[in-house]
Specification:
about 25% helix; six-stranded parallel beta sheet; seven-stranded mixed beta sheet; single chain
Length: about 350
């Protein structure tokens, strides 16, 4: 074991603060990374404040962060895909059993024995995993990803969660040239949805409650913007969408968007409203419409996404901050005061 600098929270009401955490020395199957950037995901905030206690109680101290880009510093003797100096990434998972039907099908994110990057039982240490708000991390090589060299590391970090969360359902439902795609909400997830739909060649329509976001939506790749509170604007698009990605985490009328799907169209929700949504059955039945949810992708699909981003030069729009401003960033995140993701420059830890 060795000690690594990190930022952690000691309780649900404690601010993030400088600390030192134990990391395991690399085994023969491990890759050690010097973390360059770590994105801030809303799930970091939920976990730090123990807001998901019913299904994922927080074990303190907690070191969050699962959008990690770093430089390889050491590899185990059995590792052949990586070498020291490579740019690499780690997402939401760091292990799975590799033997269950989900793993064999490439869906490690659904493995019953999957290990999350932070706040998850750690079979190596016997405690919990510590995430990317740290100067380094050691991960099984199967869960380390290659980063295309043309991508800027700061904007690449959020691809490991926000990116794959929006890429995966678009890939599954065949978003491509000639398709009409809607993106509901223009935040951390939504802005990635717009970029991916545009890169896939689709006609992209952004739905927003804020007219002032029009210019930004067009810059990100949207072809049209609809103010969702305007009934006339919504009606113009009735029964015309092949696919709609709903990224909104607040309560909203899902049926207003289901009615915009053409026959056989799909609406996938990736936002997580706190209360159940009321779905009108006939809205789905009368046009064979589909309403589904989606999580992150497996390892292979996440690598595919990064390669796609390298080919199309897609990264997240980020505001880079030092680790010392993480508590301020959390408060701003609650106000949606960021365009569109925070990315922590982990070099700032060296001053601690």
């Amino acid at each position: 074991m060795y000690k690594a600098k990190a930022y952690s929270a000691a309780s649900a009401t404690s601010p993030m603060a400088s600390t030192a955490i134990p990391r395991r020395d690399p085994t023969e199957n491990d890759v050690q990374l010097e973390i360059l950037f770590c994105g801030i995901c809303h799930s970091d905030l939920h976990s730090v404040r123990n807001e998901w206690s019913e299904f994922m109680p927080t074990v303190y101290p907690i070191v969050p962060g699962h959008e990690i880009v770093g430089r390889v510093t050491k590899v185990g003797s059995a590792v052949t895909k990586f070498k020291a100096g490579d740019l690499a990434a780690v997402g939401c998972m760091v292990d799975s059993d590799g033997t269950c039907p989900e793993c064999k099908a490439g869906f490690e994110q659904f493995c019953p024995n999957m290990t999350l990057t932070f706040n998850s039982p750690d079979k190596h240490t016997g405690v919990v995993t510590y995430g990317g708000y740290s100067e380094s991390i050691v991960v099984d090589h199967r869960f380390v990803l290659r980063v295309p060299p043309n991508l800027k590391p700061a904007g690449t970090a959020p691809l490991l969660c926000a990116g794959i969360t929006t890429y995966s359902p678009m890939r599954r439902w065949g978003v491509a040239k000639g398709k009409k795609v809607g993106v509901v909400g223009l935040g951390g997830l939504g802005h990635m949805g717009v970029k991916f739909a545009h890169a896939f060649g689709a006609h992209v329509v952004v739905f927003t409650t804020t007219p002032k976001k029009k210019e930004d939506a067009l810059r990100l790749g949207a072809d049209e913007i609809v103010v969702s509170r305007n009934a006339d604007e919504m009606q113009k698009h009735a029964e015309s969408f092949d696919f709609i990605l709903d990224t909104v985490s607040a309560e909203h009328d899902i049926n207003a968007y289901i009615s915009l799907l053409r026959r056989g169209g799909n609406l996938t929700i990736v936002g997580a409203p706190p209360q159940p949504l009321a779905v009108a059955a006939f809205g789905l039945i009368i046009r064979n419409r589909n309403f589904s949810g989606s999580s992150i992708g497996g390892v292979a699909e996440t690598q595919e996404m990064l390669d796609f981003c390298g080919k199309h030069d897609v990264t997240a729009d980020v505001e880079v901050i030092p680790i010392q401003k993480v508590n301020e960033a959390y408060e701003r995140l609650l106000k949606s005061d960021v365009k569109y993701r925070f990315s922590i420059d982990m070099a700032s830890l060296k001053s601690e």
